[in-house]
């Protein structure tokens, strides 16, 4: 004989976060709103450099973000000056950074006008080493993110093996 769950009838307060929801699942099906997912909303990172290919990628990313309820981060990557003796350590002048940001935001506004999808974009100016670390993680390298909240390892998912169908009676 099973006892009813202590919070099975209680609805969460409007300000409660999903992980604070104390309702128990008694296995008899949902008696209210479906359980909320604890999975974070996805992000789509797009390098925008002003080329036609980058524009197409940004338009695709906006449409995909609308479909997945994701956020698009349009990124412009700053390059170190050619005559820099310490590649990757030079600081870009503020004027160069602001010009890059203005150009990036203009490109994003163009894509937003084309798709009609608003409210899903952020812009960022990255220096080359940060972008290279993200790009390496995308191509199979491990990336360890360390911050005040701890350490996290970003590792590419293993590709799934194709399913083999076995004939009946085999």
TrEMBL record:
UspA domain mapped to chain residues: 44-159
* Superkingdom to which the source organism belongs: Bacteria
> Do you know which Gene3D superfamilies this protein is assigned to?
HUPs
Q: Basic and acidic residues bias located where?
A: 12-29
Q: What is the lineage of its organism?
A: Bacteria, Bacillati, Actinomycetota, Actinomycetes, Geodermatophilales
SUPFAM superfamilies the record matches: Adenine nucleotide alpha hydrolases-like (SSF52402)
The record's InterPro entries line, in alphabetical order, gives: Rossmann-like_a/b/a_fold, UspA
Species, as recorded: Blastococcus aurantiacus
Q: Where is this region: Disordered?
A: 1-38
UniProt-recorded name of the protein: Universal stress protein family protein
In the UniProt record, the signal sequence range is none
Short name of one Pfam family: Usp
């Amino acid at each position: 004989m099973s006892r009813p769950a202590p919070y099975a009838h209680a609805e969460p307060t409007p300000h409660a976060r999903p992980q604070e929801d104390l309702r128990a699942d008694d296995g008899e099906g949902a008696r209210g709103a479906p359980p909320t997912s604890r999975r974070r909303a996805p992000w789509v990172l797009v390098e925008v450099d002003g080329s036609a290919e980058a524009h197409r990628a940004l338009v695709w990313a906006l449409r995909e973000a609308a479909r997945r309820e994701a956020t698009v981060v349009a990124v412009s990557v700053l390059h170190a000056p050619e005559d820099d003796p310490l590649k990757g350590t030079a600081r870009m002048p503020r004027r160069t950074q602001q010009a890059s940001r203005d150009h990036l935001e203009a490109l994003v506004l163009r894509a937003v006008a084309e798709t009609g999808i608003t409210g899903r974009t952020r812009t960022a100016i990255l220096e080359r080493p940060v972008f290279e670390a993200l790009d390496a993680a995308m191509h199979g390298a491990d990336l360890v993110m360390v911050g005040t909240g701890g350490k996290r390892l970003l590792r590419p998912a293993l590709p799934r093996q194709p399913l083999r169908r076995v004939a009946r009676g085999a």
